[in-house]
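INTERNAL AUDIT FORM
Audit reference: QA-55
Scope: verify that the stored structure record matches its stored sequence.
Auditor: D.O.
Record contents follow.
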Amino acid sequence: MRKITKIIILFIFLFVIGIFYISLTRDTNYNTSSLVNKDTPEFKIISFDDENYFTRDDIKKNNYTLINFWASWCAPCRVEHPILMKLSKTKNLVILGINFKDKEPQAKTFLSELGNPYDLLAKDKNGKHSVKFGIYGIPESILINKELMIIQKFVGPLSVDDYNNIIKIIK
């Protein structure tokens, strides 16, 4: 009986060491490259004014759509906002802003203070729609073409380099 107990303890020890080793060698970086060149997921998301819904059909008519997940409480969203304002003046690009887990009065104040770069504005009060798009945190943006294929995903605030890349793609 003692021999069996020792074997069981040895097995458990080796199992724990194996799990520990696997977890140390595993890449835990958030990677969105698997979403690129895939179709946009089906969605039906309520507009910011609670009167309409936006679906894939609403963005299908656009040559390019940039879906931007943002919130008034998000400091990096303020950092990227000038880039979005600059992109809003670009032809061939429609920007769909999805307000993420935010309070409506604060979101409205954010847009009135900094400007509204969005052609379409929706809200994701509980964050369920963001999961469909693989959103890990905000801000995140997804560039989609007319065929509703994800061309590129931007994690974090958009930068000047991201702006130049988007302009290059849509021209």
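Auditor finding: record pair retrieved intact. The helical segments are 2-25, 56-60, 75-87, 104-114, 128-132, 160-170.
Action required: none
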